[in-house]
Fold this sequence. Notes:
By secondary structure, the chain is mainly β. The protein has eight domains: 27-138, Mannose-Binding Protein A, subunit A (Mannose-Binding Protein A, Chain A), CATH 3.10.100.10; 261-431, no CATH class; 437-442 and 451-548, Immunoglobulins (Immunoglobulin-like), CATH 2.60.40; 555-593 and 631-695, Immunoglobulins (Immunoglobulin-like); 704-849, Immunoglobulin-like, CATH 2.60.40; 858-956, Sandwich (Immunoglobulin-like); 963-1129, Immunoglobulin-like (Sandwich), CATH 2.60.40; 1144-1245, Immunoglobulin-like, CATH 2.60.40. Helices cover 7% and strands 41% of the residues. The protein has eleven helices and 86 strands. The strands form 22 sheets. Strands 2, 3, 4, 5, 6, 7 and 8 form a seven-stranded mixed β-sheet that branches.
Amino acid sequence: MINKTMIVLAFGVLCIQTAFADREDCYGWRFESQYRTDWSDARSRCSYLDGELWRPTYGKWGCASNLVRRISGYIWTGAHRSSEKHSWKWTDGSSVYGEHWWPGEPNDAGDEDCVIVSDRGWNDELCRDVFMFVCQWRRVIYMKMKRIVVTTFLADLYPMVLLEIASMFVQRLTTATIDDALDTMTTTVYTVKDRSSRRNIGKHILYRLITGNVIVKACSWRSDSTRCYPGSCVGQLASKCKCTRGFSGSQCDEITESIKIMHAEAKLSDDSNKILTTPDDPNVPYHQPVKWSNNNKWNFLELDFSLNYHIFERPPKPDPTGEKHFVIYFKYDIVKALLEIEHRSQGVSRNNRMLNCCNGYSYPIFHITNCGKKKKFDIQSWGFQHADKLTITCTAENGGFLIYRDREDGNRDINVRLKGKTVQSSLVFRWDYITPYQECINGSKTDCNQPPVDCKDVSKQPDIKVRWGGWKDDLSGIDHFELELYELVSTGRHLNHINGPAVHRDEKISVHTSEQILKLPKPGMYSMILTSIDRAGNHQSARCLVFYDDISVVDIKHTKRIKVNEASAKTNFTWVSVDDVELSVTWTDRFLNERHEKHGWMYGVAGYVGVQEEYDDLYGPRKVSPIDNIHGIVKFEIKYEVYGPYLKANQSFTQTANVLSQAEYLNITWEDGYRLDITVKALDILDIYKDDIISVYKDVSPPVIQNLWLTKGDRVNISVHSMEDFSKMTIEWEAFDYASGLDQVEWRLYNNYTGIEEHGKATPTTQGESETLEDCINKYGSAPKGSSCYCTMFHGCYHKHFHIRPNIVKDSGITPGKEIGLHDSDYFIEVTVINKALLKTTKTIQISLDLSPPHEGYVHDGLKGESEVDFQQDLNIDAHWEGFFDKESGVDFYQYIFSDHCFSKNEMAISKKKQVTYNTYATYNATSEGIYFISVTAVNRASESSKVVCSDGVTVTTTIPFIKDFVFGDIKAKGQLLKDHNDTWWLLDSNLIRHRITELSGLPNNSTEMSQNSKDLKVFPEGRPIDKIESEILNTKSKSGIIGVLPTHQSFQIKWKSGVAESLIHDYAIGISSTPGSMAPDINSFHSSKHHNHFRIRHSYLAEGGEFYIIVKTTSRSGIDGYQSIGPFIVDKTPPKYINNVINVHNVNDYLLLSWRDNVFDEEDPFPLYYEYAVGHTSSKQDVQSFTSISSVGPCYVTYPPTCSAVLLSDLQWPLHVNHDYYITLRVTNVAGLSSTAVSAPFRYNIQLPSKGMVFDVLPEDIKAHGMK
Length: 1269
């Protein structure tokens, strides 16, 4: 079977979210007229249309409200409650905004999680209820369209065909324009014939595209067509079927218009004729809010419902004969209308009633009026409890059926039932007996500190903002708030509401309002009562208190004061003379707020009827409990600052622990002379304050009196001698108090300890009254001893030196008649000083006669208790003395002077460099090294000096001692050239005497540079300079810088001279070390030479071949050690060793040539070996030629180490005989004098020439082949 389908390919643009298809359709809102369904089905239908449920906030509310009024009913929106139950979402999951709720909604009366809308606004509703709905979608602008016909052999390939066509179209759009892509879709022809192609859709083409006509179906009774009844088919074409308005579906057998409930009302009444009605408007019967009650005495329930089923278009009449139309019967109307009453308590249905509204009506039923109006239900016995629910539900359903005749099946009549619509509306009463609550107080919300009603506790302004929040009612919900304002007045020791009406009352405050601003008429205490009322009429009240005062003043009582209790009352509590860290500060009755105290505004507030305790004002500074205060002051703060004179410590304002005590303890760390500023701040409840400050000072130390003595000229601290007139004496002392200064000074003169016989007294000025140090210096600059000023931190400056020449005036000097004293008697001078802290100091001295000088003692160099010092390194020189005394008046002080010589008494008297001390020791910092002496004299209290005593002197030196002219008596060495670090060339000869080389032109470039420093080289004696170096010395160079070799002696002798003066040398010590510069020799530790400059050392412990150094430690008498390393040296006990005993002897041109290899001897010796040869008739003999140094003559050129020697045969001591054998002996000797010899094989002396031979001019091979002929 061939199937043809027309496909329309369209290309369009999807606009932005807020652009919609039709302005006439209210910006894309499509109304499904008279079609009602639940929320989930409405959502699915909109999604099927590529849209979504209506969002009223997408357009203006004016447009939305016009659409709602035109529809005249309730409409589903896309808003619904998410799983969190507290968040509203649109169908795409985005959050809802721009809500327009009914008053009191949403109330969630029984899982109402979906939203409907009417001209009144939004309301939450059960999602299973049925209402009309509106869809909305985005606009699509069509730009291009092409129609094509698809022909297939298999009908079930349509989905695959459509998918392939769409895919091809999209692919062509990537390389062609829209017009070209659409045009090419008609030029390609494809075919498909079987189902197997579906299994390989990527390899086969499944359809054929052709242009042509479309095969269509007609309206009929057949099951594969449409009856289209009630409706009409234009041209009898099924595609042209149009259902009668009010019907839909492929067969037009689905009713689309619902029954409308036109009027709904339910009433409760009791014996007192009290009536509760729902809804408020009976003409709006759908989705009415729950009506709440807290009355459990209702007796009767009355109902009144009216319904209407309206048809906008009359269906075509059926043909009972079946000739003109195959539908022969058709019927529709209201098929069901019921009223159901249900009483549910604790989730269980308790009482139920039902009423059939169709009773009394005949077919067709399109209108029902006043259903239930004539019946009164007795509910007195039902006993409604908390949370009970009384639901009146009206359910209405339309429907019907038709009969059509099947003309292909023997004209059989078939009955078809119409698919009707069911409408339902419920009116609900609920009971709530529990009062509202605030969630923080109820405890239903944790971490909550919000009061039920909150206002500013204290204010200086009359406008008070009142806030509230957190109010809940778990069942019916909060309906509104009421707010009342009352003035409070004192009654006894409490504050109560004033008699009379409220100052302000607002009886209807919206639940959406959470604050108000009230204006207070005058200063005072006020009570604000907030009452929360739920929908059932239950109420709960809460209170907040506010204190308003814009003229508050804190005053000071001038008859009271702040004081530090530890301060002395004698100083008017100005000076603290105790060393306590903790100070007690009090200010009893110093501060007050007279109005606050008089009106009792700090009293506690009496309870209020209707306000439970937990809902009363328990928060903030002004709550129902009384406020601790003293004379209207609710808080004290204290701060302090310690100055000395600058800020030393401080504490910012800190609240005291107890306002009633009017006191505080301060932990103060301060010192004498410091000032403590204490500020006390008194605050009322409005933080209006007054502060007061005091200053106190600390001085726990009494004043000081020192240097109380008699003076004579420049002499001080002397006794009266040769002077009997007290008026001629001069009394001096120093009196001062750096902390507080002086307040009073007094002196007395008396002649015994009892003080009864008084010779005079006076009270001189304290010598203060100067603000600055400069003023004091200017004021007392002409004093006998000059100005001696000091300044206290806060009490001015004083001159501390007192100089008194007493006049003969009663009570102001020497008492008349008592100015003459007795010879050899003791008198006493007493001075009393009082400081500003009134602390007193008294000092007394005794004066007597003394004419003899002190006795001299002994002076030593060095510290006391240590040995006498004659030499030292340090420039700091110490000295001490002892034995000076004066039995009459004692030694007053000492005079001394350090110098390079001893001073006489006259020199000491006139010297300006002498020093004065009261100690028996002195220290001097010398400027340079040398010898120093100290001269000392003692002075008694009569100013007489003893004889001058001088020390024996101390020598200061830091010179490092060293030795020179070092001689190593038993050492063996060879002369060698050395260069020190100053590029000076030296010849160190075999006796270890160094010679400076003056002519450097002949020196080789590879001469040895000294590895030791110049001091080590200078230790050797210096000989005369030389300018010419022998050639054999130029080739002399020791291995490893060895200076000399020690033979096999058991001991050796060394000697030296001191490099510094012998008087500075304390000792020498000799050691042997394997390394240079060692301060702890490892071969032989240091041994003293007992101050000798020679030393003998046994060296049996020295290893042969091992290097060693002579370490000389020189110690000076000042304790300085000088170290010198001399070496290296080695011990050699072994003669040279033969390695290759082969000596060749030849006669070359009348020269006897001796030759050997350069490795004949082991060259382990540090210095070059000495080579000799001898000639004899027998081995090791020298009877022809005695041992002679090798020479470089004839065919032999001698190098080092040498490998040959030659001698003219004529120069031998004895001539050689022809055809005789001779032996050559080679001897080598090292620097230690140890030698070894080597003997050649026999040498035959023969001078005969060989005989002549024959020469043949042939090849040797020919001779072998043919032989000689």
